[in-house]
Description:
Structural class: mainly alpha
Strand content: under 5%
Largest sheet: 4 strands, mixed
Mean pLDDT: 91
Strand order of the largest sheet: 3-4-6-5
Helix content: 55-70%
Number of strands: 6
Number of helices: 26
Amino acid sequence: xxxxxxxxxxxxxxxxxxxxxxxxxxxxxxxxxxxxxxxxxxxxxxxxxxxxxxxxxxxxxxxxxxxxxxxxxxxxxxxxxxxxxxxxxxxxxxxxxxxxxxxxxxxxxxxxxxxxxxxxxxxxxxxxxxxxxxxxxxxxxxxxxxxxxxxxxxxxxxxxxxxxxxxxxxxxxxxxxxxxxxxxxxxxxxxxxxxxxxxxxxxxxxxxxxxxxxxxxxxxxxxxxxxxxxxxxxxxxxxxxxxxxxxxxxxxxxxxxxxxxxxxxxxxxxxxxxxxxxxxxxxxxxxxxxxxxxxxxxxxxxxxxxxxxxxxxxxxxxxxxxxxxxxxxxxxxxxxxxxxxxxxxxxxxxxxxxxxxxxxxxxxxxxxxxxxxxxxxxxxxxxxxxxxxxxxxxxxxxxxxxxxxxxxxxxxxxxxxxxxxxxxxxxxxxxxxxxxxxxxxxxxxxxxxxxxxxxxxxxxxxxxxxxxxxxxxxxxxxxxxxxxxxxxxxxxxxxxxxxxxxxxxxxxxxxxxxxxxxxxxxxxxxxxxxxxxxxxxxxxxxxxxxxxxxxxxxxxxxxxxxxxxxxxxxxxxxxxxxxxxxxxxxx
Length: 587
């Protein structure tokens, strides 16, 4: 196949799998709704320079991702599709970038498997159908790493300088997306690579200078730092300096304090064991995470040249830096370690390439301009332990995907067994489960067994391709068929209530739990909440319109203790109350 056809192939593959059904499921609390609400408030208020929530400054994130969402909402309306559309676009761009980078370094066949592995794994695929910041943030960091690796090791003269400048610009975009952690991760990865190479060539200064001259010559080091830092600061200044001039240092100071607090103390509800992210990456990135295991368990590159090992070193260092940093960080959220998916996919592609190099797709390495072509053969048989782990993990995924719908269908049997009243209330929500929803999970289970038991032994290319394609198809089926029903159990009751209140002269507020859903789905207008607005004021103050108060059924005492608050109903794990404005003369 002509190598340019692969570009079209991955462009279409991303469009067909990432774009459909983006608006099929309501946004999920917290992060998806939080970010979409900030973008919505930009449109409503016309204030695009300052990130807001409830029309007050929101100092937790810079604005780049919200600008992308705001543009999308301007095109498609304020809805779930628009909120998730930027990530779908970045998903397509990421696939193309992985293929081009893989082709550039190791050849067309390698680029193909690198992009395909990322497309056909659970969490990497799923995140491009979400409305969270991380896919965009991760892309800029990863692209900066790729530019930096090529510039420092491959490109001469002006090309080298241009590569470092591009890397710094990507770092600036990462900072504009999620803050200084974007620079921190690139810097730590570079330091890690330099340290490994220095240790490896500590007795051969000439070889070290040939591989990474900036570690030997102080002048080159300072020049590289300036070429990287100046464009990064220039790009980041497009928002930070106007924010500082317009609103003073207060928001920026709070932003920095928030970053420190995330690192030092766990946010409520996000305290997890230290190994949390390692488990998330191993299980959530199936099946590519299993294909990457040999990269950590075997030293198969002893016969490879330095050039063939360089990008692998960068990817291993990036992977370890991400997991170590976010293991140290006290607040542990599943997508914090999502940057690790990108280098993990490279390590998986290295192993897959060795097992398929003589058995299927690819280009002719000799006809390509490749930085460090990998040997094409002989093809390595898929290790038995790799097949075993694929079988075990794939069986678990298939069973989970099949059993979750069955739990919904037989909720009357399962709900009484749950001790948590809130969980029991969520499960008891009347959702029309037919039982057929378990079909994707069962078919996936059969696919995994067929691939592992037969195809991976006889035709590795067909086996890996079937496994990645099957995973992507399962996610595509899951999004419109199963995810909306799960959402109805988890938050559907309260989301529907907020929607029913849109446009009415009322206050709507959750009590006793953190949420952003009432802002977005109530379509909160500017100026709706007076200066004295607070939970206490809604519960006992002189309100001027009805206040609808929502709490979890485990915390109804927070509201029911007030005599002039009336209970409307309890459903879906939530209790809904209303408090009418006091009659004149009562306050």
